[in-house]
Amino acid sequence: MARILVVDDDGQAIEQTARLIANAGHSADFLLESPYLLHKLEASPPDLLLLDVNMPELDGVTLLKRIRATPHLKEIPVIMITGETDEALIQECFQLGAVDFVNKPIRPLELLSRIRIALETKAHIHAIQAQRNALQQAKSFTDAILNSMDEAICVIDPDSHVVLEANRHFLEQLNLPRHRVVGERCVALLADKSRSCPSCQGPGDETCILRTTIGSGEASCRETSGHTPQGEPLHTLIHTLPIRNATGQADRIVCLERDITQTREMENRLKHLAFHDPLTHLPNRQLFHDRLHQALAQGRRHAQMVAVMLFDLDHFKHINDTLGHAAGDQLLREVANRLKSCVRESDTVARLGGDEFTAVLTNVSDSSQVRKVAKKMLKALGRKFYLTGHKVTVTSSIGVSLYPHDGDELADLIDKADKALYQAKNAGRNTVRFYAVPEETP
Length: 442
Fold this sequence. Notes:
The chain is of the alpha/beta class. 43% of the residues lie in helices and 24% in strands. The chain contains 15 helices and 17 strands. α15 (410-426) links the parallel β16 and β17 (432-434). The longest helix is centred in the N-terminal third of the chain and has 30 residues, at 108-137. It is elongated, with a radius of gyration of 29 Å. The relative contact order is 0.06.
């Protein structure tokens, strides 16, 4: 369990962050008044510091400078928290030694992931620093330690980028014997491999993570993405750590690579589940609202119409009752596919729940364009469905509202599309109705 100190002038933000930290199994401490931070750190240094950038008395950047200027405090890993996206500010904080950034509003998965990476990085750094003396005294002992780790590790000369040492896992990743690796430049070793490390041109290349550590004399960390030779996704976390000699010069760079593909894939699956309907894989209500919000913002910016369409399958309950819920689920999946086939890639089709679907059409020229799309959808849904050996015909009622004709707020447009949907049902179903546009039954 790590002790994490949160510094923020927003009590509500502190409460939310502290709760997340506690739920992750760590101990959370907090500080509301930034001028007392150094005293707090000197009295009880934490394992990790979460530091807000914007505070009224002493801002986070100033505090970070003071921390890094204090020898016995500068090793504390610091994650900056900010609502800004100023690249110059972010670059300055990284140059001052911040290990990561978290944007406000805080997303729980992102925050916990970055905390975990920061703590793991700190653990690795401490492990490597503890092994530095052992490297000088007993190479065999060092080899035993390096080869016992799951990370791919190599030691590189900072001037020539020649590999001076490599552990078993690094050799296995390259599928080369030790004598073919040690003594070779890393760029030559990785040039023909589908590795996540950028295929750089050596010590002078700006894309090389080694250059960052060589230039700053400090540890660096980078996450990279690529593919295996088989085309599978590959996510790697790379740490580069300077090893200093008796004069304080970094004459070795230790590079650690850890495969975090499973972690990233799991995070991506969780994000997908959070914003998509598990049955049809369409956007769910939450993502639909977000897409509609974006569409309205774009419509205001470019003076374009936006259409909100609500769908309700006619007599869907009868199919569930007669053919069973498995057939009903199959029908919903096929309905989703047919609706998606009727819209452009820039449009959104979502499932709100049950047999309720919705669509957002962007960059609409006039109501006739929407009417054509609606007719296309009714025609697509009118084709027979084959469910568990049965031919089934399904119709749908469609209600439409238009921005800015029917309103300019998300909730108002959804409400008016819903009212238009009831008009379509009352008109005999299998039809489309606009909230306030003269109708022609398709």
